[in-house]
User: Fold this.
Amino acid sequence: MSLANSILRSFSLVVTDRRWAAPLSAAALGFGIFAGVAIGPNAAGTLAGGPQLIEIPLADGGEEASPEAGGALAGPAGGGAAVGALEAPSAPAPIAPAPVSPAPIEEEPAPERAPPAEEDPEVEEGTELKGVVVHANEAAGSYAVAIKGGELVPIHATKLPAPGSKLTVTAHQLANGSFGEDEKPQRTGKATDVAFKGVVTYVDSDPADPSYTVSGRGASVLVHVDPDPSGALPELPEVGAYATVKAAIEPGARLVQRQLEIEEVPPSTYLDLAGILSEVLPQSAQIMLSADGSNESEADLTLTVPPKIKLPKLAVGDSYLVTAEVQADGSLTLKGIAGDEHRKGADDSASAQGDLKR
Assistant:
């Protein structure tokens, strides 16, 4: 027997008077329709909604029952008895699906590392030098180039270009600090004058043919000065002065001063020289070195040799690079010496002594 039938039987009336049959039949019909509408959408076992409160009006038109949680549905006019709340069972919780273990991921084997490529041996590149040839030194088998900025760079070669040649050459540095040609220079023109700079290392005060030598590391170049028509001695730089010279290149590769600028700084007391060894004096511990690289001046510089410099290793007539210190009285003390006799001598590290020994 259903729950609704049990409730109705408890409220059933015994009809003893036929006059009540029609009204009671109408009331029963209305109640059935109301209960069907109220209960039907949320019948047990369905998932149509949550718990609902069904309210039945009293037959005698009494007050409605207080609504419970879930709300109240008003009955049709005519009233009826309050029957109480019918709560639909809650819907069962959904069953969670069983956990699925992820399929194992097969790891790809790490790629084998390729062996390191063999590195090519380092190839020493030559230095590109570009400038104007200032001086050709037949004795040493080298020429001096004034590069951009005016510095003098000595380069050893089999065939020497003429002074005034504009060229670009690739060369390697040799043991004594000078350079050696790697290939034939590219000649780009000819100049009739040239500008260069260095330190003054020799001064000739002869009014008939005044001159001075400008030196850089590995090069010593003689510069002539036009004599004064009056016979007076023209102004000349002092030894140790930092000079910038612009000179004309005259026949015979003779450099003649056209302009001279002297830096307003104290003179240098440490000199770089290049020249031909003309004499060795063991008794006085001195050597004689030409005042310019090719001995154009036909003058010598006298240098005192300290004990650490071995005189027997020096050969008269060979070209050398020299460093010297200027003493308070103007004399020169040898500090270092290295061979500069053509490319082979310039690249002989065993010839170096003193502060030119590397």
